[in-house]
Amino acid sequence: MRTRVKICGLSRPEDVAAAAQAGADAIGLVFYPPSPRGVSIAQAAGLLRHVPAFVSTVGLFVDPTEAEVRQVLAQCPLDVLQFHGDESPSFCRSFGRPYLKAVRVKPGLDLLQYAENYADAAGLLLDAWVAGVPGGTGQSFDWSLIPADLPLPLILAGGLDPDNVAEAIGRVKPWAVDVSGGVEREKGVKDPARIEAFMRAVATTYVG
Ligand SMILES: O=C(O)c1ccccc1N[C@@H]1O[C@H](COP(=O)(O)O)[C@@H](O)[C@H]1O
């Protein structure tokens, strides 16, 4: 079985097309204004018109207000919400949509307890903990900190790229991988060749 792939931080129609063409299972749009990959609601609505059938769309938020999420959902038909901050379980589930809860992993964090707290999440997305930055840092983390028996689908993120994703899949065996900086030419501008290379590396790494 091939590991699923989400390509995150798209902000141009041609990048959406490149991700879909290369076979990405999901694309992510960043609704976090401080990010260089952030998109406005209008921009996101335009990008979503370029997403073909059977490619899931994910909206990424970092500690948004309820009103902010609802404003986005009113104009953007997102399939899944990704909460990348300190949102509570009740906040995450209050929109009635499947959601991913992102966790920034560092030693001492009890990931099994975290997963239990967000038991109704569609997946737990593990990213690197970097002081002062909520995500999208291009940093990886110590994969040995991931328990083998996480009770939620595991989405591995953090510093993945075409050169290390096969090793990551072999070692962690995640449900899906999530990449942003590793397939970029510059922040917010994806590189179709790197997207292709990433997808090829995933496609040729089968897990039983
Ligand atoms: O992409 C961003 O700018 C971002 C900002 C705030 C929170 C999360 C963000 N991106 C997510 O971070 C991980 C890892 O990214 P990378 O591959 O290491 O660059 C990924 O889930 C992005 O979706």
TrEMBL record:
Which domain of life does this protein belong to? Bacteria
Where the record annotates domain N-(5'phosphoribosyl) anthranilate isomerase (PRAI), the positions are 5-200
- For this UniProt record, give its keywords in alphabetical order, as a comma-separated list: Amino-acid biosynthesis, Aromatic amino acid biosynthesis, Isomerase, Tryptophan biosynthesis
Q: Does the keyword Cell cycle apply?
A: no
Cite the CDD domains for this sequence.
PRAI
Gene Ontology molecular functions: phosphoribosylanthranilate isomerase activity
Quote the EC number.
5.3.1.24
Tell me one Pfam family matched here: PRAI
Task: From the UniProt record, give the pathway where this protein acts.
Answer: Amino-acid biosynthesis; L-tryptophan biosynthesis; L-tryptophan from chorismate: step 3/5
Name the reaction it catalyses: N-(5-phospho-beta-D-ribosyl)anthranilate = 1-(2-carboxyphenylamino)-1-deoxy-D-ribulose 5-phosphate
User: Which terms does the UniProt entry file under GO BP?
Assistant: L-tryptophan biosynthetic process
Family under the similarity heading: Belongs to the TrpF family.
Tell me what this protein is called: N-(5'-phosphoribosyl)anthranilate isomerase
